[in-house]
Amino acid sequence: MKKNIEINSLQEYLSGFIRILIDYSPKLISAFIILFVGLYAIRFINRLVKKIMIKRELDPTLSKFLADSLLWALRVLLFVTFISKLGIETSSFVAILGAAGLAIGLSLQGSLSNFAGGMLIILFKPFRVEDTIEAQGVIGTVKEIQIFVTKLITPNNQTIFIPNGILSNGVIINYSVEGIRRVDLVFALSYDTNLQKAKEIVLSVMQSHPKVLKTPEPTVTIKSLTDNAIQLAIRPWSKNEDFAVVSSDILENCKTAFDSAGISIQPFIRDNPK
User: Fold this and answer.
1) What does the pLDDT average to over 179-192?
2) C-alpha closest to that of 254 among 194, 167, 189
């Protein structure tokens, strides 16, 4: 008897479930049709927008950001349309989403600052990808400008991520904008040195180097007279990509030329503590 009642109850539940499924199936089918068609349409629109931006030669970082923003905006719109078609009340969902967005925004104030900094960098372009910059105490080549951080590769191949918030609000030295760069070197020579001869040697070294630019002309001047030495300021110009090579070669070649001419480089003398 009890078993028959359980079977009848199960049959009633099953019949009710099938009836609800049949009644609800048109909404379910139409909702999933909208979902699949919408996903395909979003991919098509995203590819089309990217092609248009590439054709108009927009900045790659800005193009990626705009394409990603459009992609997520369309996905959110599709999701709201999907749940609305299923019969779920969207007004309460939007209210919950807004409250969650407010809470997330308050807890991620630093990230929002980085987002705003990223937007400023993308719009005003103080530097571009592959530029060599100095910022926040580090020097490196820009490899990627993301929305929240900027990726640098240092000369010793370290990867550094700088938050865009502090990057956009700090001092940025861009070594790549002008295309050429001056090498600033200093030699400390003895007071017994024939300065005219030393300057001629340095100028000859710089002028004979194939990667030192003729214009602007390299210069050598007296920087200062210290208690122990005469400091020569040696300033050749080079292309950005030749900066490290020129700096190293000029130091080495000047030292070799000074040795051949009998000119001694004054060693640094530390004051004796009292």
Assistant:
1) 90
2) 189
